[in-house]
Structures are given as C-alpha cells and as structure tokens.
Write a structure and sequence with these properties.
The structure is a single chain. By secondary structure, this protein is α+β, with helices and mostly antiparallel strands. A hairpin with a 4-residue loop joins strand 3 and strand 4. Bound molecules: coenzyme A.
Length: 191
C-alpha cells in the first residue's frame, strides 16, 4: 500500500499525502510563480489539494502513480510533491513530475528528493525508463533533470494550452543503465 512508503533523505522525509495537507499544498500550487510552467493554472483554493489527498489515499496497489510529499525534517513542513505517474508496466516506463514551494528553491532539495524517488522507481518498481515533459523555458527544471542525468530527447511543438497560453514540451529521458552509473544513485550495481 502507498501508505507504507516512507523515505528518509538527509533533509527530507518523503511520505504519502495525508488529510490535513490540503492547505500546505495550496501554498505551493496556488503560487503563480511555482505554476508558471505547470500543466494547469494556479489553484484558486485548497479544494484541489483535498481532492489530491483523497485520490492518493483511495489508491490501491495497482495505482499507476506514486506521489510523495516532501516534508522538511527541520520543521516538519510540507514543501512540495514529487510523483512517478503514468506507469506503463509492460514497457517498465514512468513519467516524473515535481513542484517545490518558492521559499525552498535553490537549496538542492528537489535533487535530494528525486534521487530517492528514482532509486525507488528503478529499484522497487523495476523501471527501465523515466521521462519528463517540461516547458523549454523552465531553466530550473531543465537543470534539475540534467543534474540527475536526464538527456534532452526532443521538442514537441505547441503541446500544451494552459489558461489560453500555448507552450512547447521539451522531453527528457533517463534510462536504468544511466541511473546505475550516476554518482547520486544508490541503485545497486547488480540491478
Ligand atoms: C524546478 C524546481 C523543482 C527545482 O527545485 P530546486 O530544489 O530549487 O532545485 P535545485 O536547488 O536543485 O536547483 C536546480 C538547478 O536550478 C537552478 N535554479 C534554481 N532556481 C532557479 C530559478 N528560479 N531560475 C533559474 N535557475 C534556477 C539552480 O541553480 C540549479 O542549477 P545548477 O545545478 O546549475 O546549480 C523548482 O524550481 C520548482 O518547484 N519550480 C516550480 C515547479 C516546476 O516548474 N516544476 C517542474 C515542472 S516540469
């Protein structure tokens, strides 16, 4: 069950979302700066957060996603989420998504979280490939992916229309063998 997944990193606790997280989620996903390149407009209230928590809590072992909250261990604050989603079991492939509260940007926290999530995905889920679809203007996201060893694989034109704004997708991919060789990986050499 998703509720059993708890991962400790140096500064973070990664855990499933819980009832009571909706306001903290709204603080992240209601911020227009955080949502500037997101696939939906900024949230107007905590309703979508409550729905997100309910959806995750209702998910069973066959769910095709794993979303974990990023909780800063120093003050127990929920600062964002990271998600493996659209799990294609036959192709052993998943997509990756992530968002962090603006006050916590630039400290390498998402790198820390995604390192642990990728170890989990390539390990427990036995993935062969993880991919990410980002707005090519989103430099922080591109740097986050590049630092993890993702490679740019192409540009899809005018793939999104969000709030009337048309944007392209830059696709990035990380293979199992790339991650095994990455200095941040704890993924076993026998995998
Ligand atoms: C993308 C995001 C998760 C990065 O998280 P983070 O913890 O701040 O990332 P890091 O501290 O590891 O920094 C990653 C890189 O981005 C750079 N960076 C951080 N904030 C930046 C900013 N606002 N503008 C440009 N570059 C930035 C860092 O310098 C670093 O680059 P480096 O490796 O060359 O030093 C965070 O900026 C965020 O949540 N953005 C809004 C949501 C979003 O865009 N999610 C991705 C959608 S696909």
């Amino acid at each position: 069950m998703v509720d059993e997944i708890v991962i400790h990193t140096r500064r973070l606790l990664l855990r499933p979302l819980r009832q009571g997280d909706a306001d903290a989620l709204f603080a992240v996903f209601g911020d227009p700066e955080v949502m500037r390149y997101w696939s939906t407009p900024p949230w107007a209230d905590a309703g979508p957060g409550a729905a997100m928590v309910a959806l995750d809590q209702a998910s069973g072992p066959d769910a095709d996603w794993l979303r974990l909250g990023l909780v800063r261990r120093a003050d127990d604050r929920l600062l964002g989420t990271c998600t493996l989603f659209d799990h294609q079991a036959h192709s052993r492939r998943c997509e990756l998504g992530y968002a962090l509260a603006r006050e916590a940007w630039g400290q390498g926290l998402m790198h820390e979280a995604l390192t642990a999530l990728l170890d989990h995905g390539f390990g427990t889920w036995n993935l062969n490939r993880v991919e990410a679809d980002i707005d090519p203007r989103n430099r922080a996201s591109a740097r986050t992916l590049e630092r993890l060893g993702f490679r740019p694989e192409g540009l899809l034109r005018e793939r999104w229309i969000v709030g009337g704004q048309v944007s392209d997708s830059a696709l990035y991919g990380l293979l199992r063998r790339d991650w095994r060789m990455h200095p941040s990986s704890r993924f076993g050499s026998t995998a």
